[in-house]
Amino acid sequence: MSQTALPVVRTIADLRAVVAAWKAAGERVALVPTMGALHDGHMALIAAAKARADRCVASIFVNPAQFAPHEDFDAYPRGEDRDSAMLAAAGCDLLFAPNAREMYPAGFSTAVSVGGVSQPLEGVSRPKFFGGVATVVAKLLIQCGPDVALFGEKDYQQLLVIKRMALDLDLPVEIVGVPTARDRDGLALSSRNAYLTAEQRKAASALPAAMRYAVAALQDGGEAIDVEGAVNASLTGAGFGPIDYVEIRDGATLDRLGPGPVRPGARVFVAAWLGKTRLIDNWGV
Ligand code: AMP
User: Which of 93, 87, 279, 95 minimizes the C-alpha distance to 195?
Assistant: First the structure.
């Protein structure tokens, strides 16, 4: 069956013109920001967007500002034709795919910096990451002016950072989190899973298995520190390393938990390397 091509705009002016026409017609607009290399996790965001709005815009921009010099910006998978076909099939209305010059023109000098929830976990492992994310997401929200924007719980800390930023900057948009889409063995879908060899992909099953163990142990009254140790040991045993963090924290504030049984709302956060691929996941207790 032939699929109608997805309309694409590459400039902020063209994006604003399309969105303004929709709003003039009284339509509610949703934005789903992505870096492309789309998979069913992204499609879950599109489905959630369509459930909440009349029109759905997806953006694809591999944001150089959120990659450190030693990270995988150049290697990051790119393929707009395939992405565009997937978005069209999912019922997305518009693709916004700006280039780096459109997003960061010569002389660009502004950064959005979020404190608090951006500091632990990824904030320790990737110190510049949330500054780059907050800046580009603030720009996308201002450029598009959606009524609602959707982000995956797969990047749970990022979701909290964006919610905080939208609140603090009075951005008139509802930020909605969407549950993590997973493969059959429970591994969270990620564009970076494409880096895994077949053997590593098998070994990666140990990550969701360890997360499930952690949730069950905590629900049984296990101490956070013991569970963190056990998860660390099982990941190391499965060939992961280095392990950037295994931490159980409050799911709203990201505060560390004290001794004793964990309170409702706690969350297990893991970031660990498998060969040259860094995998992250989180699971609510
Ligand atoms: P990315 O293209 O990886 O920057 O992700 C774009 C958006 O998709 C972010 O809001 C991610 O949290 C979300 N996302 C990525 N993987 C998943 C997944 N497995 N399930 C749900 N959302 C996801």
Answer: 279
Q: Is the peptide bond before 69 cis (omega within 30 degrees of 0)?
A: no
H or E element in which residue 278 lies: strand 277-284
Considering the segment(s) 8-178 as one domain, its CATH architecture is 3-Layer(aba) Sandwich (3.40)
Report the alpha-carbon distance of residue 10 to residue 12 in Å, rounded. 7
The position carrying tokens 């099939």 is 89
- What's the CA-to-centroid distance between 221 and ligand 1, angstroms? 31
Give yes or no for residue 191 CB within 6 A of ligand 1. Answer: yes
Structure tokens at 271: 């970031």
Note the pLDDT of residue 261: 86
pTM of the model: 0.98
191-284 under CATH 3.30.1300.10, yes or no: yes
Ligand 1 center–CA 105 separation, angstroms: 26
Task: Return the exposure string of 175-200: e unless at least 16 CB atoms fall within 10 Å of the residue's CB, then b.
Answer: bbbbebbebeebbbbbbebebbeeeb
Q: pLDDT tens for residues 135-148? A: 999 999 999 999 99
Task: Write down the domain spans for the chain.
Answer: 8-178, 191-284
